[in-house]
Structure formats: C-alpha cells, structure tokens
Predict the 3D structure of the following.
Amino acid sequence: MNATLAKAAQAQLSPAAVPAGRKKVALGLAAIADLIQAGYFPIFGEGVLSPPDDVLDLAVVTVLVLVLGFRWRLVMALAMELVPGATLFPTWTAVVLSLPTVPSAEDGKVASAR
C-alpha cells in the first residue's frame, strides 16, 4: 500500500488514486451492475423500495470497497442509487471512472521512450 502512495506522490496525484489494474476490475463490475439495473428497470426502478435493487447495490458497494478501498464517492453513489428512477443513470460506472489512477510502471517506460 505504501508503494502505491509513493507512486501517487511521484505522479503528483492525490492519495485517493487507485492502481490502473484495480480500476479496470472495478469498472467492469460497475458496468455489469449498471447494465443489470438498466436492463431490468421494472424490477430495480423503485430505488430503496425495491429489495432486489437494495441487494444488488449492497453487493456492488461491498465488492467495490474490497477492490478499491473505502472511498466517500462510493457512499455518495450508494445514496444516489436509493433514489427511485436513478438506476437509469450509470452511477457506479460514473463513480469508478471519476477516480484518479496511479500510472503503472509500463506507462512510465512508454513515456520515457518517447
């Protein structure tokens, strides 16, 4: 974890930056969750009043916290997901995309080779 923070400091990113590999995994999971919610909108459209939506959202936020670590943005996304009809907006995907990324070692090699 300290190596990740050191990379973030070198790249002049915030300590909230996540490794690119973890972000890709989280982005895939978030996109799948958003597609499920949009595809089955009649089941998930009621927000907090829909038990299947609550179960899916709690599972998604749990997995994202395990992959990315605790982020306040995830809490805000969970709150947004509880609003009826908000499942039409890809909240989970948008939140994961908004996280800064720590450049990988390969990115540094490519940049220095230019």
In short: The longest strand covers residues 18-19. Confidence is low (pLDDT under 50) at residues 109-114. Residues 20-39 form the longest helix (20 residues). The two ends are 29 Å apart (CA to CA).
